[in-house]
Design brief:
This protein is an alpha+beta fold. It is built from 6 helices and 6 strands, in the order H-E-E-E-E-H-E-E-H-H-H-H. Helix 5 packs antiparallel against helix 6. The protein is elongated.
């Protein structure tokens, strides 16, 4: 399994991509039970819900966001020291951070950490995961369940209000298609237009 993950990680980032980060969370019984994200220093990312998923969702973080994520990895010494806390807390899944840059590699596994930088980095990847899952759900409903589009859009709008989404530009092509397609309910088209306008013209 570890060899397979390493190969997929390398394939996702590409040979010449330079430094790369990997995050995974395994939490049986949750939805999804597993997900992983590979991110290169240019902000190019891929989201999978299985190590052998050959149809990942690709998206791109902005330059400043990618810089912040890699800056947190640097503060964590690129995962060359343990970050697991001994505190007794509820289980929220087994997580892995991995860094690769040529011969330089580091990996750490943990379930809970009190390290401020590690918690911030975990939150970044968790938000990337939430963004990807909301995108997948909107795409699914737009294709197979037009009545469900309203709820999928409401989920995105709520998550945006809670500052849980990143790389919002990835939503725009799908939102624009919904707005332009009269087969969707007016309330769905109006909500899609409102979300798209918020993404294109964010509040200061």
């Amino acid at each position: 399994m570890k060899v397979l993950l390493a190969l997929l990680f390398a394939a996702a980032l590409g040979v010449a991509a330079g430094p790369g980060l990997f995050y995974s969370r395994s939490f049986p019984g949750s939805t999804p039970a597993y997900f992983q994200i590979a991110l290169d220093s240019g902000g190019n990312a891929e989201y999978r819900e299985a190590p052998d998923d050959d149809n990942p969702l690709s998206f791109r973080l902005g330059e400043s966001d990618a810089g912040e994520v890699f800056g947190l990895a640097e503060k964590l010494e690129y995962f060359k020291r343990p970050i697991q806390s001994s505190a007794k807390v509820a289980f929220t899944g087994t997580k892995i951070f991995r860094y690769e840059n040529g011969a330089q590699k580091g990996e750490v596994k943990f379930t809970y950490t009190e390290d401020i930088s590690a918690r911030a980095l975990t939150d970044w990847f968790e938000r990337m995961g939430e963004t990807a899952r909301d995108h997948i759900e909107l795409e699914r409903t737009a294709k197979y369940d037009k009545l469900g589009v309203v709820n999928a859009l409401l989920q995105i709008e709520t998550a945006m209000d809670r500052k849980r989404l990143v790389a919002l530009d990835q939503y725009l092509p799908l939102l624009d298609r919904i707005v332009a397609n009269e087969s969707y309910m007016n309330v769905a088209r109006e909500r899609a237009a409102r979300i798209a306008a918020t993404i294109r013209n964010p509040k200061p």
